[in-house]
Amino acid sequence: MIGKGEFLDMKMDDMVETLYRDGTFMVSIRYYAYKINLYLLSDFYVEVFYSHKYDKIERVELLQRKTKRIKFYADQIRLPANLLA
Question: How far apart are CA 57 and CA 20, in angstroms?
């Protein structure tokens, strides 16, 4: 099982490969200019920001509890209570 620190130390290409290989896709949302895919990896959630305009993944980051996007995810899937508090 991979930890947050180990995951964050990876290059973006390796992060994406790890998510596709070992993560569980949860849901996709549209947010401004991005399509954001949410993955569950080990015991943490990861967002992958894809830009249609540039046809590329622009960033990969851990889902933060205080992000405004939480409500978009929570409308579609059940998230742990500690993310919603």
Answer: 13
DSSP state of 33: T
Number of helices (H) and strands (E), helices first, in the chain?
4, 4
State the pLDDT confidence band at 79, using cuts at 50, 70 and 90. confident
pLDDT computed for residue 80 by the predictor: 81
Could you give the CA distance from residue 85 to residue 79 in angstroms, rounded to a whole number? 11
Question: What tokens were used for 6?
Answer: 């180990």
| Residue at token pair 């933060």 | 64
| Residue 81: per-residue pLDDT | 77
Alpha carbon distance, N-terminus to C-terminus of the chain: 26
